[in-house]
Amino acid sequence: ALGEPLSWFFWYRDSSPKPHLVNRFCILLTADIISTVEFNYSGDLLATGDKGGRVVIFQREQENKSRPHSRGEYNVYSTFQSHEPEFDYLKSLEIEEKINKIRWLPQQNAAHFLLSTNDKTIKLWKISERDKRAEGYNLKDEDGRLRDPFRITALRVPILKPMDLMVEASPRRIFANAHTYHINSISVNSDHETYLSADDLRINLWHLEITDRSFNIVDIKPANMEELTEVITAAEFHPHQCNVFVYSSSKGTIRLCDMRSSALCDRHSKFFEEPEDPSSRSFFSEIISSISDVKFSHSGRYMMTRDYLSVKVWDLNMESRPVETHQVHEYLRSKLCSLYENDCIFDKFECCWNGSDSAIMTGSYNNFFRMFDRDTRRDVTLEASRESSKPRASLKPRKVCTGGKRKKDEISVDSLDFNKKILHTAWHPADNVIAVAATNNLYIFQDKIN
Amino acid sequence: MSQKQEEENPAEETGEEKQDTQEKEGILPERAEEAKLKAKYPSLGQKPGGSDFLMKRLQKGVWGIISYPLSLEPKRVLGMKSVEQKYFDSGDYNMAKAKMKNKQLPSAGPDKNLVTGDHIPTPQDLPQRKSSLVTSKLAG
């Protein structure tokens, strides 16, 4: 059944056949490190952004009777350079071209629109198809040369002729100069007219049509920078309530704001924080509590946060503590010293919901990623690598062993490759199709049952 | 299902010198890791979430002379991901970029860490300005 996660997580049962994630199509992008992955609203398009400022869009192939196995394959649809590296001489600032986030707009006509952002500038891109060409102009030849008007003796009506499909990407709006600090999030409002952009200390509200003005709606910059205690790490609009958004902080808290209450939402409407046991506090406590991603559920009833070691699901009606906590890689708690030394403790992992909100997914190290079924409370660790991903083969669940005795097929914590990190994952809005970015490779996995 | 922050069995730690600290710190591996870190870097500040830590995060990518105490490496004090290289001027920046392209580490001389603002600098104090041998694509 669509959206039902039973096929992932039945693997614990003895009698029933093991469900599998089948590698239907694995795409390798070796150009640059992938920095963001996002499905559009229908799931037919998948956009990736990379460290070199490029955007690559994949399109799902439609059902084709002559090639029955190709249904569901994603092929390259469009590639374009979204951002270039810049140097701000006035502020002595080097501006990376790395695409931090891509967010699609809901489709309103034949063209597709997306927002892509680097540290400082957000751009609205229009991706449109052209499959017809006009021929038989009066004033110019077929090769474009202008004809002498005095030589024209007859008029003709240009006719449209089919041509090879061309997908063009053009920048329609450039939203610049509104952020002093580095943009970490963009989120399109459910009103489809506005969107927010968040940097370390401020959140701005934009109208998609207006580029020379934006409203500041959150400002947590203290008057005296010495008093700075936390920064904004992620922000998102509520999927249905156009006046509600949330933002997370480096201290592990989430604030929900209502734009109806005041123009400047410095005072939150709701404050979500899990109480901490003061006796367990350590040097690392605040660092690992920093939230790297926040995502509303599709239903709008819940939100999910990702901190260094866990994923937490919060009920918007309860601020005191999360309703679920899922451990991603608890075995790393005894490795925090080394992880601090090699900077891995600052890695920003993202998380995502499946279409029905019954399952969540997030990445880990060694090209592992984790999926949690909220209904059955089962979880699974899988690996995205060329060795373990043969076409049409099932993905084998992986296990990390923490104790002394390592079973066959288990991998010990000390053997994990911390350079192979899966920070970005995306789940198709309706089907059981997932996209996993492993450094500079993109993997697309699909449920066999589809 | 709320999960308490119960820690793992400390016997699973692999540090060989950690038995003593474990006994001192109890059964929390996080505390043992903290002890390990403090043993390596005794000058590490108590509050990693302080304003210095966040200020460095905000200033990612900024070049220029930024003063911080000579005695401590910036990352250890500030408790954050490796700070971006600081450059004396745009020529220095371009040289460093060119070197990085050739897969060499940018030369971060100790004179980059000079404290300024506390005393009037003399010509001997300031780092040498490197000549711009490489034309940057950013220029012109």
From TrEMBL, chain A:
One Gene Ontology MF term: protein phosphatase regulator activity
Stored InterPro entries: PP2A_PR55, PP2A_PR55_CS, WD40/YVTN_repeat-like_dom_sf, WD40_repeat_dom_sf, WD40_rpt
GO CC annotation: protein phosphatase type 2A complex
UniProt entry keywords in alphabetical sequence: Repeat, WD repeat
Keyword presence, Repeat: yes
Keyword DNA damage: no
Family, per entry: Belongs to the phosphatase 2A regulatory subunit B family.
Protein name: Serine/threonine-protein phosphatase 2A 55 kDa regulatory subunit B
Organism whose genome encodes this protein: Mandrillus leucophaeus (Drill)
From TrEMBL, chain B:
Ranges of biased composition (kind: Polar residues): 129-140
Predominant place of localization: cytoplasm
Matches recorded under Pfam families: Endosulfine (PF04667)
InterPro entries membership: Endosulphine (IPR006760)
Bias (Basic and acidic residues) ranges: 16-37
Compartments in which it is found: Cytoplasm
Keyword Cell division: yes
Region spans: Disordered: 1-52, 103-140
Keywords in alphabetical order: Cell cycle, Cell division, Cytoplasm, Mitosis, Phosphoprotein, Protein phosphatase inhibitor
GO (cellular component) term, any one: cytoplasm
Molecular-function GO term, any one: signaling receptor binding
Gene Ontology biological process terms from the UniProt entry: cell division; regulation of insulin secretion
Function statement: Protein phosphatase inhibitor that specifically inhibits protein phosphatase 2A (PP2A) during mitosis.
Similarity field: Belongs to the endosulfine family.
Protein name: Alpha-endosulfine
Organism ancestry: Eukaryota, Metazoa, Chordata, Craniata, Vertebrata
